[in-house]
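We read letters as residues; the fold follows as tokens. A sample entry reads:
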Amino acid sequence: MKLTGIITGLVLLSMTGLAHAELITIGTAGYQGDEYNLIWDDDNNSNSVVWLDYTHDAELNYSGYVDWATNLDLEIDLFDGYTLTWIDDTWRLPTTVDDSVPNAADYVGYDGTLSRGWYNTTSEMGHLFYDELGNIGYYVYDDYPEVQTGYGLTNTGDFENLLEVWYWSETQAEGWIEDNPNSVPAYWHMNMNTGYQGYHVDFNDPSFNLTYGLAIRSGQVSTAPVPEPSTMLLFGAGLVGFFGFRKKFKR
């Protein structure tokens, strides 16, 4: 019993204080006969979310993509060591902060201070593009807008199906309606090539939209931490020393 207690204590000690990466593939989801990665972002603007690594072709309008995401029925297979508790009832399109205003065309940000422009990391897609994947936006603001060297979706991490295209956000651009009260609604969307976020009118004919679908869902993931190699070596050396010491006193 004493030996078991000592070993258990050493194992627990070896697992404490270990942090995991911010983007982790925790399993796969079966969809339309294929398997797609489930990628966990543990802190997307203080929200734990899971991305489905699948891009829906630009063949729907905004409401069609909302229906697609909310009705996703996936066969989820988590990797060993992970448990997942959903917070959202369904999958959805990514969201963003909406600070649009009337005459919104006059308001474009280069430093993330506005919803329309570059480096907006309050957007779930913007946070993914810039903060998690470390990509560079087309423009940056200094004294004037300047094209950045190396901009674009140069790093996709564990994503295999994240494309350099426009993706719908589910958030409506309220300022567009204020500016155009008789127009159809507009919604935010983001370009995963330039890192630009803008608003787009939801045309009934998808061929005018040319915007794709990406699904996300809020959920809490729990893990069984894996000891770091150095910790395991220390742990193993401790066990060898312990058993050697115990064997010596048995003689």
